[in-house]
Every structure is written in C-alpha cells, then in structure tokens.
Amino acid sequence: MIVTVTLNAAIDKTYHLPALAAGQVSRVDRVYAEPGGKGINVARVIALQGVPVLATGFAGGSNGDFIERGLTRQGIAHDFVKIEGESRICLNIMDQDGISTELLEPGPTIAGQEMEAMRQKLAPLAARAKVVAFSGSLPAGVPKSFYAELIGIAQRQGAVVFLDTSGEALMRGAEAKPYFIKPNEDEVAQWLGHSIEDENALKQGMLRLNETGIPCISVSMGAQGSLAAFHGVCYRVHAPKVDAVNAVGSGDAYVAGMAIGTAQGLPVEECLRLATASGTANALTARAGYVEPEDVKRLLGEVVVERIG
Ligand code: TA6
Questions:
Q1: pLDDT, tens digit, for every residue of 175-197?
Q2: Carbohydrate kinase PfkB domain spans which residues (predicted)?
Q3: ipTM higher than the 0.95 cut
Q4: What range defines the domain where residue 39 resides?
Q5: In this structure, which long-range contacts are made by residues 293-301, counting pairs with CB atoms below 8 Å and at least 24 apart in sequence?
Q6: Is 252 part of the annotated catalytic residue set?
C-alpha cells in the first residue's frame, strides 16, 4: 500500500470560461469540484492506475466532509484527522487559450491536539505502507519542522518517504532525509548557497544533495520533462510532446508515478518513465490530479530516459 499525507487538503475547483477579465463579470462555462490538495491528487492518480492507496491528513468543516465523501465516491480509501477548522478551497481559472490562474486559500489553523492526533494516526498507517508521500503546503499553526517529525515517524515504521513541498517546509523537512524530493531550481540554489548558472551546475547541485543522504531528487523542467539524480547518477527525462488541456496537478501525477514504481521495486529508469507518463497524462485531462490509465500506458513508450553521468 501507498499512503499519501495532505496536511492542507482542499476542494480543488476548476472554472473553465472564455476569458477572465479583471473588474468585470465573467460567466463560467464548466465547473469541476474535486477532493484536492497535492497529496490527495497523488492518491487519486495512484488509485486510477489500480494500485492500493490510502489518503490521510487534516480535514474539517463542510469542505472536509465534501473531500471525504468525494474520496469515498472515487473508491479511494481515506482516514483523516477531523479538525475544528474548515478545509480550504483552491480555485483554478482556465480561459479558452489554456491560460490558468490559481487562487489558493491558506487553509485552517491546526491546534496542538490535532497535530498530536496526526502523529498517532500516522505510525500504524506507515507500518502497513511501502511508500508514504507527504505533499503540499503546511496550514497555519503547524511548525515548519512538522514534516521532519512525521517523516521520522514513517521511517521508523520502515516506510520509504517522499516529500513534495516547497520553501522552508521543504528545507526543514529535508533534514529528516526523505528518500525522494522534488525541489525547484531556486530551492537547489538556496541549499547550495549560490546561484545556478546552467544545467551542469544544477546537475552538480543535485548530486551534492544526494551526498547529504537524499537518494532520489527530481527537478521539473515543465513540459520538457525533468532532471533527476539517483544515488550519484544523473538522468535527463524527456516528456512526450502533447497539447496540454490543464497542467494543474501534473507535478502531483509525477509523484504518483514515482511512488507506484518505487513501491513495486522498479529500477529508477522505469520509475522516472512512469512518473513522466503520469504527469503528461494529467495535462491531457480538464480535471486537476486526474489521468486516464490508457493515456499513461500509451505515453510510457514515448518517454525517453537518458543517463547523463
Ligand atoms: O499541484 C496543484 C495543486 O495540487 C492544486 O490542486 C491545489 O490544491 C494546490 O496544488 C495546493 O498546493 P499547496 O502547495 O498549497 O498545498
């Protein structure tokens, strides 16, 4: 089983409309409302590929109820810590030119006893999991060191840990040495303490991060693919060219593919292939954090993984 942890769960609403005009009334053509937040997207993309997964995290209020009901309807096992506050809404406004504007609410404030309930819930879930994937921003009230704490709990239960977050939550979480992280170029630069001039410098920086005890690092290059460093070896991963419909959630779908491959013990090249095919398949659908399994299967053959030393 794979467990995903979403501390700042959301209802992901996607509004499709002809054009977004600031200061004017815009009528929406189509609305999708899904259980979301990064880790829940990861869980859905895993479930859609027929792999056992359970989603946990914090959920509260009527939005929390919507998220849990939606997961049940989608056949995704879940076990959330119920909180006093109201889970957030994240809005993605897509115009007819495919331009996306995201409005992400900060989310609820988490109380001390709710964090304690999360610590208690995670240990037995992690004991049953091959991979535990932590994804997304931290809600208010949660210290920046909380991911490191939870990662320690999951690792002590023998799980392989993924961490996909950003900024200080990533910097502090990475101190617990997760197996997989997905920083952006600026975050790698921040770690190194100097700017990154070119791809070679990025590669060297990622290899230095491997040496600090994080075995698997992937940096997204957007629609072109990604650069990965695995146990001191670098890979350039070329994504298939597609006409993207909605790229929101593609990073989460990438994590889902990587988690499936890792849980199944596939070689890293195959994990990267599955990650990239899943991320690309996500961009082909109008919904965030969603893939058609046939798209993933077809795209798998079109991903090129190149070992670059
Ligand atoms: O990756 C896209 C997305 O997952 C949206 O679906 C939205 O829920 C958002 O990210 C949340 O990101 P955050 O980093 O605030 O947890």
A1: 999 999 999 998 888 888 888 88
A2: 8-289
A3: yes
A4: 2-307
A5: 293/48, 293/49, 293/50, 296/49, 296/257, 299/240, 299/242, 300/273, 300/274
A6: yes
